[in-house]
Amino acid sequence: MESDGPPPMLTSDEARALHIANGDVKRPGHLIALSATFLGIAATCVGLRLYARIALRRRVNVDDGFIVLALLFLVGSLVTYIQEEKWGMGYHASTLTPNEIIHFFHAFWAMLWCYCGCLACVKLSLLFQYRKIFGNHASRFRIVANVLILVIGISGLWTVLSGIFMCWPISYVWTRQGDAKCMQIWPLFIGNAVLNIVTDLIVFLSPIPLLSRLHLPLRQKIILMAIFLTGFFVIIISGIRLGIFIRSNGATDFSWEQITLGSWSFVECAVAIVCASVPSLKPLVVHVFPKLASTFASRIVDFEASGDSHNKLKKINNDVEKGPNGSVGLFAQGGEEEHKWLDHTERLKSVQGGVQIVTAVDTDVEKK
């Protein structure tokens, strides 16, 4: 006669096999594929941005360095996901062995500060770009940009260092052995997520007052604002990620929840890199689609060129002279060259109460 005692305990492998048979598992391969896809998109945008800067503009700036650093952090995040997948991500924590849990948390710890470092570098890249574009045309904004760079730098450094040193010794994060002092982990995660959203709002909204003062037709002004406000996609994703954090409420089934949380975290970082690179791609669009550019793009201010030209030009010669390809326009004196053709159709200069567009006319010259 069989006893009515408790069922025998399953081993970790047996429990995992039972979950798989019942379909009770999140496929970690889906997260890896999603992350690799978005990494490819972000890397393509950064590559095109660097091509536009190096091959077409023949210069790189501080903001380019920060966006490359952000991309490296994103690559690091994908590496940590691959390690997490190896050590049980997507399975219930109850099915993991102690050794798997140690290695999983080691990879999870690295993922945290890669994520925070990526977002901090993207925001610093945007602020340096804003300062270069608008700072020479609005001295107050340059001061604001410098203050924001300091604030974002400190907050970004905090999120990275708090992720690295959440426990001391650091190894306690994954070994849980010995005596250690740790921050309150769950409030730390929530606090850093809220801090990221607040700083996102500050960074993406900061140039809007200047854009609204541009002397442009309404449609062109709307297009410009739309380009700069693409960053709100990042804020929406950050809000979704925060909601997932709050919903999980410090759940102990960490390896199971990480699939959803990791997916949104990676997408947030990748989309942030893409949004930060979009405004820098106009020279490439003009180069590849000159006819399209002459119809549409040339009517939108080339902010980047205007910011650089303000730094380089000491004096504008108002004489009409012959330029490249038989065109007529303005020549500039000073800077690295005695005469430098203004190869961008619009220029900005400071005016009281706003920013004015100064247009160089490009026409064909008939040969006599």
TrEMBL record:
What does UniProt give as GO cellular component? membrane
Q: Which UniProt keywords apply?
A: Membrane, Transmembrane, Transmembrane helix
Tell where it localizes. Membrane
- One Pfam family, please name it: Fung_rhodopsin
Coiled-coil positions are none
Q: Which family does it belong to?
A: Belongs to the SAT4 family.
Q: What is this protein called?
A: Rhodopsin domain-containing protein
